Please model this.
Amino acid sequence: MGDKGSAPIFACKGLSLDLGGREVLTDISCELRTGEVLGIIGPNGAGKTSLLEILSGRYVPKSGSVHFQGRRINELSLFQRARIGIGRTYQTPVVPEELTIGETFKAARQAYKPYLTRFDAEYGASLVNFIYDEDKRTSQLKTFERRKLLLACLLMRRPKILLMDEPAAGLINSEIDEIDRILRVLSKEMNIAVLIVEHRIELLDSIADRVMVMDAGEVIAQGELSEVVNSPAVRAAYFEHVAG
Ligand SMILES: Nc1ncnc2c1ncn2[C@@H]1O[C@H](COP(=O)(O)OP(=O)(O)O)[C@@H](O)[C@H]1O
Ligand SMILES: [Mg+2]
Model:
């Protein structure tokens, strides 16, 4: 649910973005409260990943602002945003394939100060049911285990918000059920705000408090998932996409 009466922990206002000489985002605004899950859906090319790139600090918007805990953070780099508690996951889980699991956690623990302990790493692993098999090489991990490893490395830093790009992509149903349970714990028990781009409607239906629908760089609908998917604008966006 989030605490509806409280100020948003994270927000963006009027974001626009040019890429390759073309406007790929136009006037995007959203806000998230502690413990709230906001789902973002929309056809391929809608601009969902580009939005996450701005929010996490990798792309600089043409206009608009990003706010965290009441502070404007446009000037903060990706790294600085990570340090203040903004975690980001990617659609493709890229793990350091030359390292073992133990070495990967160690690198993450010592990525910046304060350095974390093994205990923190085991805590992060336990939150996502990741098996801390120290000597196993990360190259041997399947997609879901790679996602969990990267998520565990984020969680041991105790982020306040997670920006997730299609965490269920390429997963089988039992794995999606597990992601569902994990995200529920992170949001509802640990009060992490979660902004999740996801095509799997059944996952959003289960965990998202609200959804925002994007098409061609704009927000075309927002609200409860059940209302939004039936709106004429959303139906048209998906139909045009399928037809075209
Ligand atoms: N680096 C880039 N340079 C130019 N255009 C890009 C770049 N990245 C994405 N785009 C374009 O921006 C639009 C939005 O892409 P993206 O944010 O990846 O959408 P989504 O994640 O919703 O599928 C698409 O038209 C895509 O082709
Ligand atoms: Mg994308």
User: Anything to note?
Assistant: The two ends are 37 Å apart (CA to CA).
